[in-house]
Amino acid sequence: MSDDAGALHARSPEGLFASARRLIATFIETTQTRLELLRTELQEEVHWAARTLIWAAVCLLAAAMTLLLGALAVVFWFWDSYREAAALGVTGFFLLLALVAAAVLLGKLRHHPQVLTHTVEELKEDVRQLRGMHEYSR
Asked: Can you give the pTM of this predicted structure?
């Protein structure tokens, strides 16, 4: 086929429809990839939230136990011999547990990345590439 015939074929309706089909297929594939990335990030976010809620519950439970046992320790303080030491020891244990759980919780909250970071980065890269292709077509 000569160059003129090839150029004419590219401008024919069949060539335009084929180009349009390829463009639509590429768009659908890109959209599918981005949606899969979005799904993965949302699943990770749900898992992070569940772990964070568990540590928050441990922290609250330990703090509540600390208050309860602290109150009992004050009552036992005025009782006979070594009951106070036992009550204060148990209270100290739960206080330590509450502090550890709070430290873990705060660490997780501080080091958690923003939601959908990877999806936003991929979309920015798509836009950058599309703008680059637009400049080449001029």
From this structure: 0.48
